[in-house]
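Appendix B, record 7
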Amino acid sequence: MTDRALSVVRAGALTTVQDRGRPGHAHLGVPRSGALDAPAAALVNRLVGNPPEAAVLETTLDGCTVRPRSTVTVAVGGAPCPVTVDGRPAPWGAPVRVMGGALLDIGRARSGVRSYLAVSGGVTVEPVLGSRSTDLLSGLGPPPLVDGAVLPLGRPAGVLPYVDAAPQPGPPDELVLRVTLGPREDWFTADAVRTFLTRAYRVSSASNRVGLRTEGPPLERARPGELPSEGMVLGAVQVPPDGSPVVLLADHPTTGGYPVIAVVRPAGLTAAAQATPGTPVRFTAVSRR
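Structure tokens (predicted):
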């Protein structure tokens, strides 16, 4: 058995393998998937000398604990959290050398939702459709981590950067999502569109990698019934029958019948990945169809 591997000691609430995803397969019903906070995943890869497409671990709220079988360089970023090696504090947002057999613990997020662990050489589980990402909706890719799992690692290939710490944006106190209205804006009353663009919502605790769910004033339909299923894109804001907007994230379905009142600009989705339940949400229109 290779010594280039990580043993999972504590899997955490939801820890998955993620890379840049598998775009280009929506016609097969396969979502893009990939790291929800893509800039954070790219940064920790850079800190350990990995190429940007290397697979990392994405944790959710309470981190995870792993034990490398050989000496590796690691970096943790995304949601700020405590990092320890054999119980001793280690830097967050900087490269850390971890000896083989040592216990690396990524603790509970102090703020934000998702932390990212990069390991020199990257996680090299078997790719599916060109990606090692876990897709919670379709079930493609490796399953979420469980205690006792063993993850293979690649060989380090890059040069480590000279850096003490790498600045990263903090999780949002308020999530402001810039949207393009449509394509089904006309399925809602004028008052509903006004409400959508002027009233405050909150991030729901029911949010996940499929969609950021919101709580707030319901949006009234101008038309009854449902649409035939049509294509869905990353950032689409669907409105189910309860009237609460849902922002589709990386593991979203590729088709759906709930009307899409607007589409979030891609830049806003990074902050959405780190918005904790209860975070205020505002939608602001930057253009129309």
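Remarks on this record: The first helix runs from residue 38 to 47. The first strand starts at residue 5 and ends at 10.
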